[in-house]
Amino acid sequence: MPTPSNRDDSPRRHASALSSPESRVPSPVVHPSYATSRRNVPSPASFRRWTEAALRGARHRKAAELSIRIVGAREGRAINHHYRGSDHATNVLSFPADLPRGIPSPLLGDLVICAPVVVREARAQRKPPRDHYAHLTVHGVLHLLGFDHRNATDAERMEALETRILATLGIPDPYLPA
Fold it and tell me: What is the CATH number of the domain that holds 86?
């Protein structure tokens, strides 16, 4: 069971949860870690909220736990080089949990989000960095759930789902031109 610091204990939240079909789905446990300055980087509560929206939008009804590591350019580049062979930092990397079959676990995996890349891309796309962090969190969580964009059909499906999830958060379609 999540500790009180991992959920919103307000009466309004509990009252609305009791009347919604999602009330039986536990809130995700999100472990954010900051390996770079936290200046202008969203709070743990924001990452939890975005993760919850992604899980709800993907109709994931089980307990879920994941880590989100916010890194600087150097670490982002090193991780991307080590795991993908690309010698540059990228916006988000997803590492699904690799557990043996038959092992019940809420672990979805890990996300690595590179803060300087997020800010640079947000500026280039003329969108608030917070919206871009939300988009990349949703995108990464969907990867942890098995969604991908390796072909056009899968890409369209994943982008449409991301757009619907972000709309529930009041965030405009990230795929529209700026």
Answer: 3.40.390.30
